[in-house]
Amino acid sequence: MSEEKSEGELFYKAQSPDESALVTAARNFGFVFRSRTPGTITTTEMGRPVTYTLLAILDFNNIRKRMSVIVRNPEGRICLYCKGADTVLLERLHPSNQELMNITSDHLNEYAADGLRTLALAYRDLSEDEWETWSESHRCADKAASCREDRLAAAYEQIEQDMMLLGATAIEDKLQEGVQETIAVLSLANIKIWVLTGDKQETAVNIGYSCKMLTDDMTDVFIISGHTVQSVRQELGRAKQRMIDLSRTRDGEKEEEMAGGFMENGFKEVQEGDGGGGKQLQCPPPSAPAPPSNLMDNISGEFALVINGHSLAHALEADMETEFVSTACACKAVICCRVTPLQKAQVVELIKKHKKAVTLAIGDGANDVSMIKSAHIGVGISGQEGIQAVLASDYSFSQFRFLQRLLLVHGRWSYLRMCRFLCYFFYKNFAFTMVHFWFGFFCGFSAQTVYDQYFITLYNIVYTSLPVLAMGIFDQDVPDQRSLEYPKLYEPGQLNLLFNKREFFICIAQGIYTSVVLFFVPCAVLSNATQSTGVPLADYQTFAVTTATALVIVVSVQIALDTGFWTVINHVFVWGSLGLYFTIMFALHSQTLFKIFPNQFHFVSCG
Ligand SMILES: Nc1ncnc2c1ncn2[C@@H]1O[C@H](COP(=O)(O)OP(=O)(O)OP(=O)(O)O)[C@@H](O)[C@H]1O
Ligand SMILES: [Mg+2]
Question: Would you indicate the residue range of the signal peptide (predicted)?
């Protein structure tokens, strides 16, 4: 879409950033896209206005990886123009393009190695008859009541053949600010990062290097690009074996250093490396059985795995997925390139199935929606690629680097708050309830309660609810700056240290212990207390009020001790709840209230 605010000032709004970059570049070369109606496209070509009749648009999707447009130019010639991923477009060229195709492929690889996003462009001249026939079959497919998508895809496939190569484009897809730093910090927090992209392998690897997921210091980078089940299995097996061998070498070298030169390990040196002068290790023959997966737990060294979409399709099959997960998880970095949106979601599902991990998917485009929905936590980046990702996400922001704060600060605090909230919640309710249980031994397990009815009603909703709520909302153990500086602080959450079975039983034990003290100490003291006349000093109500008051004071002091970060609201809630308890008790037990509402109080004598 173009918008001309004033003469010579055109603003393009495109479906994808690539398209707007291409249209803007064409404008700079004198081919200006001016306006569009449902049936026409108007351009100015080197100052000469030209209007094309738009005949059909063959939509883009992530499976086709290309899109085309069929237009009739002012001279009446019908032409199909197609742009898309090189892998799909080069397969559909006329055989006469072979030479140009080889040159273009070299250029494409060069561009991709520089980290540029590439597209190949082609055209096909259509005769009036060809167009008429195809347009009829397209109309039928479009109107089909069943399998419409498949029929349309077949129709598109039919016409996007024997095209003539026009050339290739390369567009710089700049990384956002702070991506490198964010990835480095998240890795230090022991968060495993996988890149799932639709880009071609070279571009993806280059981006991997520029965001420091891949580095030159890595022990090895494995590339899995087989086209058959067998070759993918072999490549994975080889990668796995090499990881084990190299780890043994490293461990052996370490032991050798420590043991003063003695070395015993299971690999065989076969020759001196030619490139860097390093030692090459003998790889097992391709058909060697894969090593047992428990060996993979002790991998030392930094490895990376790059897998292509077509190989991933085989790796995700039921009989290979375990091997793929174990190999990939032993690597420090995993890059899946040329993957479809469905594969992105499948990879997330695979990790959810095989690892006890919490998954987070972050993306900016419509092709990331399925993985954002599959992951436990979905994050959408709002940017140039539309709002589908944002709409599908749980959290959204405009910059990748904010992920650092989301996880290391807000995620961490949120986990801490939830755990403390839960622990305290169990504690205070056990302290409250178990007193009833102990009282049962003295009232013959009758229905009599220890506390008075008002106290039972108000304990959870008035006396003890607000302080724990304030802790659950505001608590912090370390300030945000420290969480960002020391990513290791994120680990307790991953290891489930703050709330687990052990912590749960500790809270409950503490609650039971509190209830024992709260019940038996007043019970022992008051049951022996008598006046000098020999009349017992305490009655049932004295005991009830003493225990209840002690309980409210103890749980309030406990939350004061548990609170790590005091705000004004915490103070108001903790001390206010305590104050409210005494105010209500005073009001309930004072003579004034009896005088105001004489008929509202009924007493049962327990004497
Ligand atoms: N509008 C388009 N027209 C034609 N081809 C396209 C278009 N958008 C993408 N492509 C081609 O299809 C491929 C796959 O696109 P897809 O949107 O799945 O992934 P991506 O944009 O390359 O990467 P990412 O997953 O990081 O967003 C692209 O690499 C590109 O070659
Ligand atoms: Mg995209």
Answer: none
Known binding residue 139? Answer is no
| Mutate which of 15, 22, 60 for ligand 1 pocket (most atoms within 8 A of beta carbon) | 60
Q: Compute the C-alpha angle 94/100/106, nearest 5°.
A: 125
Mean per-residue pLDDT of the chain = 87
User: What's this model's pTM, rounded to 2 decimal places?
Assistant: 0.82
Q: Kindly tell me the burial class for residue 412, based on how many C-beta atoms sit within 10 Å of its own C-beta (0-12, 13-18, 19 or more).
A: buried
Distance (Å) from CA 108 to ligand 1 centroid: 15
List own/partner pairs for 492-497 with CB under 8 A and 24 or more apart.
Answer: 493/411, 493/412, 493/415, 494/190
Q: State in Å: Cα 3 to ligand 2 middle.
A: 24
DSSP secondary structure letters along 112-148: HHTTEEEEEEEEEEE-HHHHHHHHHHHHHHHH-SSSH
Is 205 buried (19+), middle (13-18) or exposed (0-12) by CB count in 10 A? buried
**Span 60-66, mean pLDDT?**
89
The protein residue whose alpha carbon is closest to atom 16 in ligand 1 is: 198
CB 66 within 8 A of CB 122: no
Helices (H), 259-340: 309-315, 321-329
CA–centroid distance, residue 199 to ligand 1 (Å): 7
Rg (CA), the chain: 36
Give the closest residue (by CA) to ligand 1 atom 21.
198
ipTM above 0.90, yes or no: yes
- Ion ligand 2 nearby residues (CB, 5 A): 365
Assigned CATH for 2-172 = 3.40.1110
Closest residue CA from atom 18 of ligand 1: 198
Helix (H) or strand (E) holding 72: strand 66-72
**Domain segments of the chain: what residues?**
2-172, 179-339, 407-600
Q: Looking at residue 308, what is its pLDDT?
A: 94
Nearest CA residue ID for atom 6, ligand 1: 84
327 is in an annotated binding site: no
Q: pLDDT digit string (tens) for 286-310? A: 444 455 556 666 677 789 999 999 9
Q: For ligand 1, what atom is nearest to the CA of residue 197?
A: 25
Contact present, 314 and 320 (Cβ < 8 Å): yes
